[in-house]
Write a sequence for this structure.
C-alpha cells in the first residue's frame, strides 16, 4: 500500500503549475490497483489514480499529451524519529505526482501486477477529480496524517470518486468479515506480521465491517468499482496473499516453546530442582510484549489497539516475578507466591477468553507456564514443607 523515499525524489521531476488546467473530451481517469509486494508494508496492495489526456490544455495555454499517476502512498523511512512516530500512529504520508510509466515500472520491479479500471465519467466529472487532485498536490496540502484503515491510499481516491458522482453511494450494509479477518488475511498466514498484529489488536478489531469500511483495502475497492457499473469490462485479478511457511513460523516457535516448558518441568520434577532461568526468561518475554501492548493501548492513535484482552495476561506486571527469580532471596519469595501467580493466570485467562475478543495462541504460553509452577509447587515445594 505504500512506496519509499526514492519514489518521492523521482516524483519531484513532475512540477505541476498549480492553476487552471483543462481536460479535453478524450481524457480518461482510471483507478490503478497494485497487487501485494513482499515486505509487510506492501502486503495489502496499493491504489492510485491515473489521468490521461492526448489534448491537455495546460496553465500556459499550450496543448500537450499527459499521463500522470497521483499516488497517496508515499512515505520516507528517513523521516526524523520515523519508527517512534510509526508506533504512535503519527506517520505522515504525502501525495506524489508521477509519470505513469514510472509508476508501473516500479511496481513490476517489486513483482507486483497493476490492474487498471477506466472510470465512466463525463468530462466535467473528470475535471472535478483532477481539480481536487491538483488542490491536494499543493505543497501545503500534499502531506497528510496517515491512518491505516480510515485514511490511506485507497480511501482517498474513493472519496474523490464519490464527490464527483453525487448519485454514487457506497453501500453501508454489514458484511460477515471483521476488521481482524481481513487485515489478517492480507498480512499473510504464518507470518510474524499477522502474529504481531493480532496480538496488539483489541476487541474492537472483531467488529463486523460495512461494505464502505471494507474499501480501505485496495482489492476490495477494485472489486467494488468493477461491480458498481461505473467502469467497463476490464481485466482484474484476485490478490494472492503473501503467506509465510509453517517451517518456520511464529506458531511453530510457540509449539516448540510449549514443548520446552513441558520438558523442563518434567526434568525439574525428576531432579527436584527448579530451572529458574526458564521462568525468568518467560517473565521477561511477557514483560517486553506487555510494554509494547501497554504503549499502544494508552499512547498510540493506531486503530483497534485499545481494549485489548491480551493485556490481561501479557503486561509489565510480570517484571516483579522476573526480578524475584534473579536472586536467591527473591526465589524464596517467588516460591511462596507461586499459587497466587497460578490463580492470577487462570482468572485472567478466563476473563480474556470471555471478552469476546478473538483468542490469540500466545496466551497458551502463560497458561502452560502457570501449570508448570503449580506442578512444581505441589510435587516439590509443598511436599518439602510437610516433610
Amino acid at each position: 500500500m505504500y512506496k519509499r523515499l526514492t519514489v518521492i525524489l523521482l516524483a519531484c521531476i513532475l512540477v505541476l503549475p498549480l492553476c487552471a488546467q483543462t481536460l479535453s473530451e478524450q481524457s480518461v481517469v482510471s483507478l490503478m490497483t497494485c497487487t501485494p509486494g513482499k515486505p509487510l508494508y506492501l502486503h495489502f496492495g496499493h491504489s492510485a489514480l491515473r489521468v490521461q489526456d492526448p489534448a491537455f490544455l495546460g496553465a500556459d495555454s499550450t496543448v500537450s499529451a499527459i499521463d500522470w499517476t497521483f499516488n497517496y502512498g508515499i512515505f520516507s523511512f528517513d523521516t526524523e524519529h520515523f519508527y517512534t512516530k510509526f508506533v504512535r500512529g503519527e506517520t505522515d504520508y504525502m501525495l506524489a505526482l508521477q509519470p505513469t510509466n514510472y509508476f508501473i515500472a516500479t511496481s513490476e520491479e517489486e513483482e507486483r501486477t497493476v490492474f487498471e479500471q477506466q472510470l465512466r465519467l463525463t468530462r466535467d466529472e473528470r475535471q472535478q477529480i483532477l481539480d481536487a487532485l491538483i488542490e491536494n498536490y499543493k505543497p501545503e496540502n500534499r502531506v497528510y496524517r496517515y491512518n491505516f484503515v480510515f485514511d490511506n491510499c485507497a480511501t482517498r481516491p474513493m472519496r474523490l470518486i464519490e464527490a464527483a458522482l453525487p448519485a454514487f453511494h457506497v453501500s453501508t450494509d454489514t458484511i460477515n468479515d471483521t476488521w481482524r479477518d481481513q487485515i489478517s488475511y492480507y498480512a499473510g498466514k504464518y507470518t510474524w506480521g499477522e502474529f504481531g498484529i493480532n496480538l496488539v489488536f483489541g476487541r474492537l478489531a472483531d467488529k463486523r465491517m460495512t461494505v464502505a469500511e471494507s474499501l480501505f483495502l485496495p482489492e476490495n475497492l477494485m472489486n467494488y468499482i468493477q461491480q458498481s457499473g461505473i467502469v467497463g469490462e476490464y481485466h482484474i485479478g484476485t490478490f494472492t496473499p503473501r503467506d509465510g511457511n509453517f517451517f518456520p513460523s511464529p506458531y511453530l516457535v510457540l509449539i516448540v516453546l510449549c514443548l520446552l516448558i513441558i520438558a523442563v518441568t518434567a526434568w525439574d520434577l525428576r531432579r527436584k530442582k527448579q530451572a529458574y532461568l526458564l521462568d525468568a526468561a518467560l517473565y521477561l518475554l511477557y514483560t517486553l510484549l506487555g510494554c509494547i501492548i501497554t504503549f499502544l493501548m494508552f499512547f498510540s492513535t493506531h486503530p483497534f489497539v485499545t481494549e485489548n484482552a491480551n493485556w490481561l495476561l501479557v503486561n509489565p506486571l510480570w517484571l516483579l516475578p522476573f526480578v524475584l527469580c534473579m536472586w536467591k532471596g527473591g526465589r524464596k519469595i517467588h516460591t511462596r507466591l507461586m499459587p497466587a501467580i497460578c490463580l492470577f493466570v487462570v482468572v485472567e485467562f478466563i476473563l480474556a477468553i470471555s471478552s469476546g475478543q478473538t483468542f490469540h495462541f500466545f496466551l497458551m504460553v502463560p497458561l502452560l507456564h502457570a501449570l508448570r509452577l503449580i506442578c512444581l509447587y505441589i510435587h516439590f515445594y509443598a511436599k518439602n514443607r510437610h516433610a
Remarks:
- Strands lie at 28-34, 46-57, 63-74, 92-99, 114-118, 143-145, 174-178, 208-210.
- Confidence is low (pLDDT under 50) at residues 1-13.
